[in-house]
Amino acid sequence: MVKEILPYKPYNFIGHIDSPWNNHTMANTSPVLNQRRAGILLHITSLPSTLGLGSLGRHAYRFVDFLKECDLSVWQMLPIHPLHRVPKNTPHRDFLSPYQPMSVHAGNPMLINLQKLIDRGWLPRMSLPTYSVDEIEKVFEYRRQCLKDAYFHFSRQATSKDRELYDQFVENNKDWLEEYALFSALKDFYTGACWWNWPNEGHRHHHPDALTQFRQRSDKKYCLDQYYFEQFAFFTQWQELKDYAHENGVYLFGDMPFFVARDSVEVWAHREYFLLDEEGTPKFLAGVPPENDYFHPGKGQCWGLPLYDWNKLEEENFQWWLKRFDTANHLFDMVRLTHFRGFHKCWAIRNTHDNSPKPRDGEWQSVPGKALFTKFQEMNLPLKIVAEDIGVPDEVIGLRNQFKFSGIKLLQIAFDLKQEAPLKNYHLPHNHMPRDVVYTGTHDSDTTKSWFERVKKIEEKQKFVGEYLNANPEKMPWPLIQSAFRSVAKLAIIPMQDILSLDGGCRMNKPGNSNRKSKHNKWWRWKLSEWLQIKLDTGQKLKALVERYERK
Q1: Which residues does 439 contact at the CB level (< 8 Å), separation at least 6?
Q2: pTM metric for this prediction
Q3: How many Å apart are CA 258 and CA 241, to the nearest integer?
Q4: Three-state SS string across 301-314, please?
Q5: Mean of the per-residue pLDDT values of the chain
Q6: What is the pLDDT of residue 421?
Q7: Residue 366 has pLDDT above 60, yes or no
Q8: Residues 6+ apart with CB under 8 A from 353
Q9: How far apart are CA 504 and CA 62, in angstroms?
């Protein structure tokens, strides 16, 4: 039976009545692309911090100020949902990856700034300690304890106004908040164990009676209100930062992961939307075939993520995805869709249950992305989308073009000499289109400085890069940055590592290169150590490029 699409109540995170889903504007539009702009890619965790990784505190506001000082108007960041939690002392290759969210609606509580909680009176006055990024597990334990202390303090001393806002937030978001809080409390109850390893069958299989009994436990250690409060605190701080950014002419450009973690509230509570067996084990795992693995040609990747049951999703008129886009549109002014290819086809690797699925043993499974976006178009919903379409086949480009989504152009792959005619490379600036978003590199790319060191080892390629850019190689990465600003693409985004001319040791991530056996993984840990790391003339150089190429 096909469900009728009902008007969906927008998430009203902290009591505001406005929502981008109430704007009856043309679909697939964003104010970010109404003129030529430029911005910086810097994830929140990469901001300076004395508590391991960055947060929504004063350094986030300082970064908005820096963007404004340079006449830049876009801040792009990575996904901001809760990280994939694993049992204590259990190494995991994706410990800090924001692309395996535990929830597609909740905010990452580890991004909550503790000093702002203190200043607001939600956490007792205290001197916060100092931790390095290499002590991130200790940092998370400390932050979780502080959030528990904050809820205890808030529940007893909150002002009537804060209590009213809190109650309103919980009521407006109960559609996803109750299940998220319950899942988080159960994760604590089972000391972080993955849900399929929970010994209680009722808890494991989401049986209503068993879950009701857990909610009614007298043990306040596993209080669901704790997680209601954490989300209230997160979205309060998020909205304050977003308002400050807008007041200073800065737009927030976010990222929506295509997949979700198997150990997530979505898979646990809504397994009907995923291809799982009766025990909740994925029948297939997502990945990339060897011939499409850009980072490790001929090897392929298996990400260990479950695939969607698109038949069920389509039968229910894509309500699950509707809610996801609702959240993304409320959080950000524009959203990058990671793995846009997945809306056309997904590489499905049969799960062998022996922990050694082989990427080459997969097959392409069709996805009704056209039906999904057509449904949203019929509802006149504003999909402010940039499609991550690097290296995709023509059919995926056709899907992107049909719905007028922006695409991505990546300069680091623009000079690939493997093609018979390099000048046909669509990532070269003279092939760009106005609706494109151009990057020097992304969070998955090497830094441009490190990339060019490899380029110099191939004489023909170095000559091609130098002549095309009419540049002095010794000044790299700035010639590539200038090329991005010069492009006809409406939006140019530069990773902060390139702005700082950093080498490959500051790379954010390298796909398919994590070590499952390594407890301390270097990926996702880079951060700006201090603002003095930015040279005095850097802002002036950026401001000059903005003016010269009319990106303001």
Answers
A1: 41, 408, 409, 410, 411, 445, 484, 492, 493, 494, 495
A2: 0.92
A3: 25
A4: EEEEEECECHHHHH
A5: 89
A6: 59
A7: yes
A8: 281
A9: 26
